[in-house]
């Protein structure tokens, strides 16, 4: 089991998203980890302004994952971070990361170059895992991004980079990997995202209307 290789597992979840919490509890029960002491829900951070990001949701998600990493660093432990819309794939049972893996993408939405994931822009970060050596470098890096006066190496960003805007957490992980090519990254298809109303991006009209949103969520369960 992949989670045997990490000291702690944290699931990012907003308190009001009890639907997602229930679904994640079922997912862990399904793989035999319903009572695991290492699995805990993390109370997601909801911000009221975007800060140095384009979206308010990106700001909260960035701060939440940073806090999880800071807590793991303080404990001297490795960590797997999951968003609360993961659906585990069969490989979750048998996949074993290489002993020297520092960064694991257990699930992502897409990539700019599927034939060269190591150097591609990876979209999504719904299942990430980090070794302690990686966390020791990642935490100060993410903290530095919150300060827009921090100079960014132009070799790791796109030509249209706006220095006043920071990338969301998935883009920040890509930047981090480019800053630290000595860290070994591994990619595996361990979890897909369940269809669910977003808490980070802009919501569709049917996710903003309470009654229609309930019907939409029921429909998503059968997708």
Number of helices: 6
Spatial order of strands in the largest sheet: 2-1-3-8-5-9
Structural class: alpha/beta
What is the helix/strand order?
EHEHEEEEEEHHEEHH
- From the alpha carbons, calculate the radius of gyration and give it in angstroms: 17 Å
Q: Which CATH class applies here?
A: Alpha Beta
Let me know the number of strands.
10
What's the domain count? 1
How far do the termini sit from each other?
A: 27 Å
Provide the low-confidence segments as ranges.
203-208, 211-223
Approximately how much beta-strand content do the residues carry?
A: 15-25%
Question: Helicity, in percent?
Answer: 25-40%
Question: In the CATH hierarchy, what is the architecture at level 2?
Answer: Alpha-Beta Complex
Overall geometric form? globular
| Largest sheet, strands/sense/barrel | 6 strands, mixed
Q: What's the pLDDT, averaged over the residues?
A: 87
Question: What fold name goes in the CATH topology slot?
Answer: Spore Coat Polysaccharide Biosynthesis Protein SpsA, Chain A
Q: How would you portray this structure in words?
A:
This protein has 223 residues and is α/β, with parallel strands linked by helices. The chain has a single domain, classed as Alpha-Beta Complex (Spore Coat Polysaccharide Biosynthesis Protein SpsA, Chain A). It has 6 helices and 10 strands, in the order βαβαββββββααββαα. It has a 6-stranded mixed beta sheet, sandwiched between helices. It has a two-stranded antiparallel ribbon with strand order 4-10. Strands 6-7 form a two-stranded antiparallel ribbon. Strand 1, helix 1 and strand 2 (39-43) form a beta-alpha-beta unit. The longest helix has 20 residues, at 56-75. It is globular and about 45 Å long. The two termini are 27 Å apart. Mean pLDDT is 87; it is low at 203-208 and 211-223.
């Amino acid at each position: 089991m992949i989670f045997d290789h990490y000291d702690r597992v944290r699931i990012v979840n907003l308190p009001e998203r009890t639907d997602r919490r229930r679904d994640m509890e079922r997912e862990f029960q399904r793989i035999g980890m319903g009572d695991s002491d290492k699995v805990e829900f993390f109370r997601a951070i909801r911000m009221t302004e975007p800060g140095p990001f384009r979206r308010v949701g990106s700001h909260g998600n960035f701060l939440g994952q940073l806090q999880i990493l800071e807590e793991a660093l303080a404990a001297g432990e490795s960590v797997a971070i999951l968003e609360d819309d993961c659906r585990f794939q069969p490989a979750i049972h048998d996949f074993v990361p290489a002993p020297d893996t520092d960064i694991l993408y257990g699930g992502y939405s897409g990539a700019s170059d599927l034939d060269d994931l190591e150097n591609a822009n990876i979209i999504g970060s719904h299942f990430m895992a980090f070794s302690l050596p990686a966390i020791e470098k990642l935490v100060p890096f993410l903290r530095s991004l919150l300060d827009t006066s921090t100079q960014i190496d132009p070799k790791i960003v796109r030509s249209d980079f706006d220095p006043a805007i920071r990338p969301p957490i998935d883009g920040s992980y890509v930047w981090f990997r480019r800053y630290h090519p000595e860290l070994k990254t591994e990619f595996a298809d361990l979890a897909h995202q369940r269809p669910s109303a977003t808490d980070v991006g802009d919501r569709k009209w049917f996710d903003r209307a309470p009654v229609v949103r309930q019907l939409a969520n029921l429909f998503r369960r059968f997708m």
